[in-house]
Design goal:
One of its GO terms (biological process) is pheromone biosynthetic process. This protein is mainly alpha-helical. It has 13 helices and two strands. Helix 4 crosses helix 6 and helix 10 packs antiparallel against helix 11. It has a single domain, classed as Orthogonal Bundle (Farnesyl Diphosphate Synthase). Strands 1-2 form a two-stranded antiparallel sheet.
Length: 254
Amino acid sequence: MIDDFMDSSTTRRNKLCWHRQPNVGINAVNDTTLLHQAILEILEINFRHIPEYIDIVKLVNETIYFTAVGQQLDNLTVYSKKRNNLDCFTLDAFKNTVTLKTAYSTMRFPLLLGLSLIKDGQKKARKELIDIGFDIGQLFQLHNDYSDVYVKESESGKAGYDIQEGKLTWLALTAVPRCNQQQLAAFKEFYGSPDPDHAKQIKQIYDDLKIPDLYEEYESKLYREVLGRIRALPTEPERKFFLNLLGEWYKHAY
């Protein structure tokens, strides 16, 4: 809800975003606080009698915090012609933002939450497993970035405005160092502009630089690396779990 509100998004999963619903608007900000409190109330009602209760609450709050930090990074790296800050468009910055904004909530949180409810679960939460989850989260965000530009809203369920919003995406950070002088000047002029015609010119730069082909190569390489690490896990239940997780999230967009 916060992400959609801050990005002024219109749809998610083929439905109007919450803040776009009738009589909601800016009240969506307060609604997120109510939802957070509702989560804590539900946890207290159902789990306060078990020893793991404190760890579960800590995990929920920790995940919300790290996601908020990722959201902040996402906003701080937004490009504008006035700021002229394309130097922020690096792979390291992209990975940091993806890990905090996306992978903590979609991968790390459910994994640690499940492990917290089984015997010696914390001991089973090895860094190796968390890192695999983070890489699956990166695959998820990569496809989300691609879908924002190249997949129709009717198919992705979400209107794409990354170009107009000047977002740090894999497509943008890959395109910038490959631009010739004329393309770079156009990129600086039009990226982050709300004008749909400017967005089309940025997409044309992507096409001219064969960014879709480079994306397919990068995504396939990362997928094979993650798949190899999963197959190298020591136990069959671990391998089965992460293979199922990879299958669920690979090439899946918001």
